[in-house]
Amino acid sequence: MKSAKLPPPEIAAPTPAALEQERRVLLELGNDITRVREKNDLLTLFGKRIKQLFYFTHTIVTLIDRKDETYVPFLLDNEGSPIRSHERYQEMVEARFSLNEPFIQAVLQAEEPISFLLEDIMDKPKSPAFLRVNYEKGVREILMTRLMKEGQPMGFIHIYSDKPGSFSNEFRNVIKGIAPQLSSAVSNIIKNEELLKKEKEKSFLLDFSSDIASVRTKDELARAVRAALGKLNPPGGFVIRRINEDNTTMSPYVYDLSKTHDPEILRALESARYPIDDGLQNRILDSAIPLLFNVEREIQRGITSAYLQYWKGMGFKEVVGIRLRNGETNHGILFLDIGEINIPLLQGICAQISIALANIMANEQISKKQEEQAFLLDFSNDVTQARTKLELQTAIFRVLDKTLHTKLAMLRVIDEDGLHMLPFMFDRTLFENAKVDFEKMSAHRITIDETYAAQVLASKDGLVFNVEEELKSGNAYAQLWKTTGLKNMYSLPLRVGDKNIGTIWLLANRLSPLILKGICAQISIAIANILANEKLLAYKKQLEVENDYLKEQIKTIYNFSEIIGGGEQMQKVYRLMSLVADSNTTVLILGETGTGKELIARAIHNTSPRKDKLMVKVNCAALPANLIESELFGHERGAFTGAIDRRIGKFELGNNSTVFLDEIGELPLEAQAKLLRVIQERELERLGGKQTIKIDVRLIAATNRNLEEEVKAGRFRADLYFRLNVFPIPLPPLRDRSEDIEPLTHFFVEKYSRNTGRKIKKVAPKVIQQLRSYTWPGNVRELEYLIERSILLATNGTLENVYIPQHADAEKKEQAFLLNRSLEEVERDYIIETLKRCAGKISGAGSAADLLKIPGNTLHSKMKKLGITKADYFSN
Ligand SMILES: Nc1ncnc2c1ncn2[C@@H]1O[C@H](COP(=O)(O)OP(=O)(O)OP(=O)(O)O)[C@@H](O)[C@H]1O
Asked: When you count CB atoms within 10 A of the terminal residue's CB, does the N or C end of the chain come out lower?
């Protein structure tokens, strides 16, 4: 080594003036150096002052890094250096040079400045490259000395010259003398730089903190963090991952990558939920300091989370993970693709991010809650107004579809029996893509013990079935659910208080538990209201029916108390009545229209043990053929089109009482068969129902037809006739019991005088005479109407005139009433006229229906439609 050192050049002894100048320059340099704070000023000053005394081209200062036994350029001469134009200049500036080679070791060991000719040393093994680089730019000689700090070398000053022999003894002495000051100046600069760096970090954190304090949304957070981290220069970007509500997984929250990557991979990364306990994320969350890890090494360690593979593919190598934590709560992790970390700075940044994240999450939660509450309020307004099923359905469909992107698969309600569940509502369009007949399938009554129904009803807040998982586990319904493309089936019990009232099945990708609970509660109440409302309406209807019967009964009791007629014929009737009243025997009352068949039927019922219950009357002629069965035996909801509610039939209504089948001869054959079965078996099933209902009724039937002839003509079933004809009571026509005409006349005169307020006390004998000589085709009813009308026309206290129908006038009237009439009016008048001719007899032999050649019940319904009442055909 020594051989490389140049001998000090011989020079003349300095003159006193030269010595004085040297002293002055060094003094000035010493003064300047102590004031230097700025890195670049030092070498500029040094060059300016020393060049007044000696010749050299440029200087640099290098610093020793004990960590890896290297020295690195620290201060550069930006003005004088000839190597700045060398192509390897930048490389030299950034390089680290090893301390373990002979050249620098010689410098380290030399206590005084030491110089070398570059050509002697630059090509020696391990010699630092900057020697040759300098040489290539004309530099020939180097003078170096150590810079010391607290007795230890901290670096070197390098002085270069392009003229060999520039470094005289005097020059060396000056450098030796000035080295301690240079050392302390360099130390000051280093300290100053550190201080500046800290200041910078502080002001950076302050800036960041004020930036992030105003962050309220995810996007704002991403922007602030991006700006802040940008200063740390992460080569691959950063990810903020947030702990999900389930507290077991994490999902990316903000992804910011400096390079563009495959969008497919990014989508996969962003939508994933990674288990927290994957061996890496949990380690970071547990670590108080940032964790620097190598992606490749973590994969080798056996961590299988997919994000590591993706990161590897994206070129991430060294990644720092820092937990984002506020107080004792972890919110997530910040991952930075960065090799070197400034731990305090990162921790400062993360503390701020954590607060912002906590704020955002709190904010999100508040606004989500507010949204959910507002939604529930809206829904509640819509749903609670629903009074009918249709209104409820409209409200539910509107809200589910528009606001929640949710489909109603099925809503079942528990039946009154508490055992069965009936479909109440479902979305017919939902399973359009499925090949099964969903409507048929869903219309099934199931029991509350059915596997899925039982599970849901037993659960506290319902169940969630993941469609994919259900498919794997072989749930047969899941095939159907899959056709909708929605991910989950949410199934909840509908409850009012503690009572299960049904189940609801909703298909959706995601539903918040609060919303689910809320809508279920609202729907439950709405359904309970609707059911209660339906029940109320049904009760109301039943009460109305019962009320009608009651009124009728009161009317009849009044009538019955005075059945008029003491003649022999009627005596026979009374005998038969008293014989049969007490028993349960079926009675068949026969007689022409208006002879009092219904009156007798009620009298039998009212003297029977069943008298405390209402007698139920069915007019077989007045029933439309298609409704006879449902009228008699009732129907279940949905039994046929239009059967909106369940209906109780007349037989069920008359249970434990008497059913009076008026005009039994008019009953169609099909209904006769059903009636026969009910009479024989004493039990019935409602239409569309499965349940058998036992009934105990006493039957009284009446007809003005000759049933024997009807049987012969094939219009009446013989077996039914025998069942009904157990105890026949024939009623005589009024013309055959003229002895009863007078008492009946008095009875009606008194009744209608009272009703109309006219005081008719007497009936003229000629009137009785006239009445006795008439044939009374309409029997007692005709007499009753005649008296009622005559009373209205009577002028004094005696009934002197009655208006018995005169058939001779009929033709004249006919011509008059045909002119200027609508078809309906003509039809109405024609029917009235025909009824008059038949003395009000509507059906049966010699009746109006007979003359008009239409069935009795058709005539009945026509009369109803045209508003024809008895008053019309018993008037003149
Ligand atoms: N013996 C009687 N005493 C008092 N009123 C009677 C008597 N017979 C019949 N009436 C009255 O005559 C009217 C017709 O009687 P009811 O309706 O019982 O006859 P009906 O034979 O059933 O007639 P239809 O065959 O047309 O149904 C009723 O107002 C009834 O009160």
From this structure: C
